[in-house]
Amino acid sequence: MRGFRVKYDRWLRDSPLLTKGITSAILFGLGDRIAQRIENSETTDGDRIDAEDRHGLQRTARMMVWGGILFAPVGHAWYNFLEKTVRGKGTASIVKKIAADQLIFSPPLSLAFFTYAGCSEGKQLRETLETAVAKLPPTLAVNWTVWPLVHVCTFGFVPLQYRILFINIVNIGWSAFLSRMASKDGESSSAQKLEEFFVQQMEDSEETAGQTC
């Protein structure tokens, strides 16, 4: 583990955007596969599952593109900007960073994700934007419940160079939630299972962060 951390530190120094992009792509893809397993958990038709899995690989690829090519560089720029703009390590500084992240960064990022998800599926831009706007409030409701707690550790304990990595670990659960929100079929039972998984994932991530911070 120590050897990997040394290598990861070197990768971050030599190619920060590439390293964060690859990490984000892998973990966003993992989150989507988890979401699809939850969605298919009540399905007993093997042929249907196989067909959905073939289609699901395309969905996973789209999530990996979002995580690696879009989220990673934007997140890298945002968290560096936030660190330079809001200085200090005290409670007031942490609260300001969390407020800025949740009020300035999260809403347009979520809107951009749903727009990207719809357009990458070949939907009309107008339909995609309408759907994205409709999904934004419930997404932010969950976002504002979970991420402020996560970011207490992000901004209070995690060094700047590791923040995208830490956020990506939490994003295993969050990307599963986003992927489920972006999918066309939204059965309440599957959504409930996903929410239960997501809450558990957040709790596990916070426990892990508490041990490592």
TrEMBL record:
The keyword Hydrolase appears for this protein: no
Any one of the GO CC terms: membrane
Family assignment from sequence similarity: Belongs to the peroxisomal membrane protein PXMP2/4 family.
Organism: Phytophthora lilii
N-terminal signal peptide: none
Transmembrane segments: 63-82, 140-158
Protein name stated in the entry: Unnamed protein product
Keyword Aminoacyl-tRNA synthetase belongs to the record: no
Top-rank lineage group of the source organism: Eukaryota
Mode of membrane association: Multi-pass membrane protein
Keywords: Membrane, Transmembrane, Transmembrane helix
Classification via InterPro entries: Mpv17_PMP22 (IPR007248)
Subcellular location: Membrane
Database matches in Pfam families: Mpv17_PMP22
